[in-house]
Design goal:
Blueprint lengths: L29 E2 L11 H12 L10 H15 L8 E4 L2 H12 L5 E4 L6 H7 L4 E4 L3 E3 L2 E3 L2 H9 L3 E7 L11 H13 L3 E5 L20 H6 E5 L2 H4 L7 E4 L3 H13 L9 H8 L2 H28 L4 E2 L7 E5 L1 H5 L7 H9 L1 E2 L1 E2 L10 E5 L4 H19 L1
Parallel strand pairs: 1-13, 3-4, 3-7, 7-8, 8-9
Antiparallel strand pairs: 2-10, 5-6, 9-10, 11-12, 12-15, 14-15
């Protein structure tokens, strides 16, 4: 049915006034903040949802064998990872899973370690559950980030530290952690009996010239202390369908996590959640993904060249994955009063809505995050708005 289909990522979809979080902005504003794409999803996912909806019955969902097989085949084919059926647990989202796992596998007052700057909602998961969020701040040098290994070991060694949340690929910096780094992280966590919880939701959105490494390849370490969180929601722009999986090889950890997810009532799928996964991991969706990755890669290059030539006062950090770009505004902020809110200034002067780097902690106060998963016309509009605001800010 879709053999000769062409995917039109230049098509502009009107999302205003349709109850989309990202587009809940004023008419003159352009949102490039929330991490969802302005592209239509894979046609096989869309058709699958339509077919399900045509039944006209929206009862309780059920996990079928095809759901397990879809994850297993996809991960084997795309990432060379062998997942067994019994390792997979359904959850309605990565963030609900993190919160549930924190509650089940740690106690109030214990430490959960993060490598900052990092996805801000992780802090909510930790702090809202009465745990301490401790930062292993990444070292920033020559437009790149590196792990502070001495600080990491010191904080993992603390008896109060019971879990580390790894973000791989890392949001917002777009870094794919090298295999040697994952091995070293895993060995340190194992040494100090710290659970390694890896959010791998962006794993399929890697740049064309890059390959992704999963903690699930750490075999012996993953079997002892590893938990991986995976989902097609970022990959295929279906976050609103609330579907994900937790992968746990260790029998004891898996049972505890399964109990937690069920106790928290986040282990039952809505009527579209299972079919969406099955259709996301088919051949048509795979073609869609390869086309989307190419389009996003081009957009990141366009953004990089535009900023280099038109706004040299800021710099785009070279990333390896995700459709989020991390903008270093340190030079202009150092020349101004840091109390001035650059993100708010940009929104007020040009209508461009970005994510304020401060919320990601670490050295994020000098940065802005921009979502470039949009038609090129929208991207260029956003870049020109950014240029206008930066010039006004500096004047």
């Amino acid at each position: 049915m879709f053999e000769n289909i062409k995917f039109d990522f230049d098509e502009i979809i009107d999302r205003r006034n349709k109850n989309f979080l990202k587009w809940n902005v004023k008419e003159n504003e352009l949102p490039m903040w929330v991490a969802d794409m302005d592209f239509k999803s894979s046609p096989s996912i869309i058709e699958g949802i339509k077919k399900k909806a045509e039944d006209g019955i929206f009862g309780y969902g059920n996990i079928c064998d095809e759901w397990y097989e879809a994850y297993i085949k996809w991960w084997k084919k795309r990432h060379g990872v062998n997942i067994k059926k019994e390792w997979l647990i359904f959850s309605n989202g990565v963030i609900p899973s993190i919160s549930s796992i924190i509650r089940k596998l740690s106690s109030p007052g214990e430490n959960i370690l993060l490598q900052t700057p990092v996805y801000n909602i992780f802090f909510n998961c930790i702090l809202n559950n009465g745990r301490n969020a401790i930062e292993n701040k990444l070292i920033y040098k020559e437009n790149n980030y590196f792990i502070d290994w001495d600080d990491l070991e010191k904080k993992l060694k603390d008896k109060q530290t019971v879990m580390m949340i790894l973000c791989n690929p890392h949001n917002p910096i777009g870094k794919i952690w090298a295999e040697k780094d994952l091995i070293k992280i895993g060995e340190l966590c194992d040494k100090y009996d710290v659970i390694l919880l890896s959010d791998e939701i962006h794993c399929d959105l890697v740049d064309l010239d890059c390959e992704y490494n999963s903690v699930m390849k750490l075999k012996n370490i993953f079997k002892k202390i590893g938990v991986a969180l995976i989902s097609p929601t970022k990959t295929f722009n279906i976050a609103g369908l609330h579907t994900s999986a937790v992968v746990v090889e260790n029998d004891f950890l898996r049972y505890k996590i399964w109990r937690g997810l069920n106790t928290d009532e986040v282990a039952e799928p809505n009527i579209f959640a299972v079919d969406a996964v099955i259709n996301a991991f088919d051949l048509i969706s795979e073609k869609w993904l390869d086309s989307a990755r190419k389009y996003i890669f081009e957009n990141k290059k366009i953004a990089g060249e535009f900023i280099k030539n038109e706004i040299p006062e800021i710099s785009l950090i070279k990333s390896q994955a995700t459709y989020l770009v991390w903008l270093d505004c340190g030079k202009i902020l150092c020349a101004r009063n840091k109390n001035n809110n650059l993100c708010e200034f940009i929104r007020n002067t040009s209508g461009l809505c970005l994510s304020d780097g401060k919320i990601f902690r670490g050295n994020g106060e000098n940065f802005l995050r921009m979502n470039v998963a949009c038609p090129k016309k929208i991207l260029l509009d956003g870049l020109n708005r950014l240029k206008k605001s930066i010039f006004e800010y500096m004047s």
